[in-house]
Amino acid sequence: MAGLLQGKVTLVTGGGSGIGRATSLRLAKEGAKIMIADYVPDGAEKTVKMIKEAGGEASCIAADVQFAEQVEGIVAQTVKTYGRLDCAFNNAGIEGKFSDTILCTEENFDRTIAIDLKSVWLCLKYEIPEMLKHGGGSIVNTASIAGLVGFNGIPAYVAAKHGVVGLTRTAALEFAQKNIRVNCVCPGVIRTPMVERAIDGGGFTEAEVTAAEPIGRLGKPEEIAEGVLWLLSDASSFVTGHPLTIDGGWVAH
């Protein structure tokens, strides 16, 4: 039986660790050909190795997605390697530095917005034209529960992720009749290197974070991967502009 993404060429940014790695592995298992873009080459190469060892097909490229020429290069390299672009998971992001709104530095705000929001726009800008050449495609952006509700101490991150949700909806409307679907996932607190850094730097304990999760535990990257797979695949063919919340009930408070 063919996989849900059999033969689909899929670009994953931030695929060298965490949610990006787990999702790359899951998509490859469903038959996708994966191009991984990551700021950390070693992480991307390790993900490629894991995919190949599992019998999948993957390549990688080092890139900083806050810069237009590098995002354009990622998309061009994907097409050069695999001939087309069918799907994309625009996932690269950072947590930024912890501080309240009035203490947040301009440097931190600008960098967080550039990597967490501007990069998503750049990815859409260069991915969508390639998809249009082949009749359409499917895109998933990584937002966050911080794109749906506010959080103390991370104003730039919250602003960026709210922006990702809005950008997702706008692009979805613009290309709905051109066979391109654009959705986003809104993860809760997922056990990733980024979340571990955030817990260390945020002045709270893992036990406190876990207690705030209605389901009583942190999420797993693989649980986000399942949502991304569904949104990228034809199983969600009537879904576009949707922020899929995968959060153990956090925003249901």
Brief synopsis:
With 253 residues, this protein is of the alpha/beta class. The chain is built from 8 helices and 7 strands. The termini are far apart.
Question: In words, what does this structure look like?
Answer:
This protein has 253 residues and is α/β, with parallel strands linked by helices. It contains 8 helices and 7 strands; from the N terminus they run E-H-E-H-E-H-E-H-E-H-E-H-H-H-E. It has a 7-stranded parallel sheet with strand order 3-2-1-4-5-6-7, with helices on both faces. The longest helix is centred in the middle third of the chain and has 28 residues, at 106-133. It is globular, with a radius of gyration of 17 Å. The termini are far apart.
Cα gyration radius (Å): 17 Å
Summed over residues and divided by their number, the pLDDT gives a mean of 95
Euclidean distance between termini CA atoms: 41 Å
Query: What global shape is seen?
Result: globular
Enumerate the strands of the largest sheet in spatial order, edge to edge or round the barrel. 3-2-1-4-5-6-7
Q: Helices and strands: which structural class?
A: alpha/beta
Helix and strand sequence: EHEHEHEHEHEHHHE
Poorly predicted regions: none
How many distinct helices? 8
Helix content: 40-55%
Sheet-strand content, in percent, reads: 15-25%
Task: Summarize the main sheet.
Answer: 7 strands, parallel
- The count of strands amounts to 7
Tags for this model:
seven-stranded parallel β-sheet; 253 residues; alpha/beta; 7 strands
Explain the layout of strands and helices:
Blueprint: E1 9-13, H1 18-29, E2 33-38, H2 41-53, E3 57-62, H3 68-82, E4 87-90, H4 106-133, E5 137-142, H5 155-174, E6 180-187, H6 193-201, H7 206-212, H8 221-232, E7 243-246
Parallel strand pairs: 1-2, 1-4, 2-3, 4-5, 5-6, 6-7
